[in-house]
Amino acid sequence: MIRECMKIPLAKPDITEMEKAYVRDVLESSQLSIGPYIEDFEKSMTKYIGVKHAIAVNSGTSALHLIVKSLGIGKGDEVITTPFTFVASTNCILYEGARPVFVDIDPITLNMDLDKVEDVITHKTKAILGVDIFGYPLDWERLNDISIGYNLSLIDDSCEALGAKIGDIMIGAWADASAFAFYPNKQITTGEGGMILTEDDEIADMCRSARNQGRAGSGKWLVHDTLGYNCRLDEMSCALGLAQMDRIGSIMYKRQKVADKYISELSGIDGVTVPPVPKDATRSWFVFVILVDNRDEIMRKLADRGIQTNNYFPPVHLQPLYGYDEGTFPVAESISKRTLALPFYNNMTDNEIEYVVQNLKEVM
Ligand SMILES: *Cc1c(COP(=O)(O)O)cnc(C)c1O
């Protein structure tokens, strides 16, 4: 191994001959949108997650937006959520003119601190939007109990948690509606893409119509009964997604193997907190995020050695768009200063993992 030459990216999609064959099949047909692949991709997802409806859309952000819209959330409404997430989680609330209400996070799981949720429920609260951050399942059983008591809708931004479950129930089946995302660094990819999962016929109908220009349930192409969008996912993307779902078991296995190797290599290193593994649930590995002091300096030094890392996530409430003062959500803020996402992808070799860990030790 020539150490000096190793370049290790943060993420890398895992595309096999099967993905290429499925996409080629689309290109050789004349049906590049609204064809058989979107149906099959959606079916594979309803089967895997165990819910009635799956609606493929052009991004995870679109999935979240259409869910918020279909729940009738709008001006004057409040939605409780976490500040420690990707900005799309929260922007989808703003799109419909509602107000995100943040609660601070648990310092171990990095998910919304459910002890703090009831403190911020008001007569304006319409829904709780939970996030399974980095693929760690939020405690949906407990959140469900809270929501029933106050008659609130539940939205799962499960964009980072495809494959996670609580007991035998998959993430994606817990809330009134859930969103997955298929950007190239997610567990499976379609290039760009997303999926809405729901058991509710009405939410499903509204999302299907909204994704397709507000077309009427009648199926008539040029009848539009509501204001819709074009959030359709093309056939090339759906073919790619279907091929990934056809080998989802192997994808999950590979990711678990990389995570296990990292955890064993990193355990016992002073000053490194490895990501938590839940006892009564199964996490899915989206990214591999450790906690360290002097994070920015470590990132710079690793970059000099060809190792790409990232600082997932700066808290949403401190983004210029949101403009809260520092100190508002102290746990999220202090965690955000210490998070370091290490290179993580399906086909990462033991050699590559050892190289990352060796260099991390040296620069710390
Ligand atoms: C990836 C992601 C999204 C949506 O991403 P898109 O790029 O729009 O597909 C939303 N929320 C979270 C937490 C994410 O990680």
Can you characterise this structure?
With 364 residues, the chain is α/β, with parallel strands linked by helices. Helix content is 35%, strand content 13%. It contains eleven helices and twelve strands. It has a seven-stranded mixed β-sheet with strand order 1-9-8-5-4-2-3, with helices on both faces. The protein binds pyridoxal-5'-phosphate (PLP). Pyridoxal-5'-phosphate binds next to helix 3 and helix 4.
In short:
With 364 residues, this protein is of the alpha/beta class.
Give the helix proportion (percent range): 25-40%
List the secondary-structure elements in sequence, H or E.
HHEHEHEEHEEEEEHHHEEHHEH
Low-pLDDT regions: none
Strand order of the largest sheet: 1-9-8-5-4-2-3
Terminus-to-terminus distance: 23 Å
- The coarse overall form would be globular
Strand content: 5-15%
The profile of the biggest β sheet is: 7 strands, mixed
Q: Number of DSSP helices? A: 11
* Mean pLDDT reading: 96
Which structural class do you get from the secondary structure elements?
alpha/beta
Small-molecule components bound: pyridoxal-5'-phosphate
Number of DSSP E strands? 12
Radius of gyration: 21 Å
Task: For this entry, give a set of tags.
364 residues; alpha/beta; seven-stranded mixed sheet; three-stranded antiparallel sheet; 13% strand; globular; binds pyridoxal-5'-phosphate
